[in-house]
Structure formats: C-alpha cells, structure tokens
C-alpha cells in the first residue's frame, strides 16, 4: 500500500522469489499485475503454490505462473 491507497501494479510483471504460500504474488495479481511468477525450490512448496493458485478467481489464475527456481542454477524452464 502507498499513502494514497493500494499499490498500482497495473500491467506490471512481478517475480516473487521464495514464494512460500504465494501471498505476495497473489496480492500483486489482485492489484493489477499482468504477469506474476511465483518461485520456490522444494517440490512440496511448489505443489502448495499450485494448489493456492487454483483457489484464486479465474481472472487471477490466468496471470499467475508457478515454477521451480534453484538459486545455484538460476535458469527458468523454457515452457
């Protein structure tokens, strides 16, 4: 939030590192981010992020992507 209200994320691309539950990324999506990439390393957390994404309204789901990110080899998958 800013002093004037909610943070304007309209048409912004957001990368959340170590997303955990995805709260930060879902907040960005709800504030208008056009693309939100949620990242984490552990498979259990990635499954939880995918589950949490499925609980979001369809409009939000369409803009949120979940992917594994290994900081020792920081390359995003091509798909």
Description of the molecule:
The protein is α/β, with parallel strands linked by helices and 79 residues long. Helices cover 30% and strands 19% of the residues. It has 3 helices and 3 strands; from the N terminus they run βαβααβ. The chain has helices spanning 23-30, 43-54, 58-61, and strands at residues 13-16, 35-40, 64-68. It has a 3-stranded parallel β-sheet, with helices on one face. The radius of gyration is 13 Å and the shape is globular. The chain starts with 12 loop residues before the first strand and ends in an 11-residue tail after the last strand.
Strand order of the largest sheet: 1-2-3
The biggest beta sheet reads: 3 strands, parallel
Approximately how much beta-strand content do the residues carry? 15-25%
Q: How many angstroms does the end-to-end distance come to?
A: 33 Å
Shape: globular
Oligomer: single chain
The H/E string reads: EHEHHE
Beta strands, count: 3
Query: What is the mean pLDDT?
Result: 89
Rg to the nearest angstrom?
13 Å
**Structure annotation, total helices:** 3
Helix content: 25-40%
User: Structural class, from helix and strand content?
Assistant: alpha/beta
Low-confidence stretches: none
């Amino acid at each position: 939030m800013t002093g004037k209200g909610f943070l304007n994320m309209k048409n912004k691309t957001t990368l959340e590192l170590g997303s955990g539950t995805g709260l930060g990324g879902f907040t960005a999506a709800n504030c208008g981010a056009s693309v939100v990439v949620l990242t984490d390393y552990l498979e259990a957390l990635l499954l939880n992020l995918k589950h949490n994404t499925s609980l979001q309204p369809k409009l939000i789901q369409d803009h949120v992507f979940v992917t594994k990110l290994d900081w020792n080899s920081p390359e995003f998958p091509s798909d």
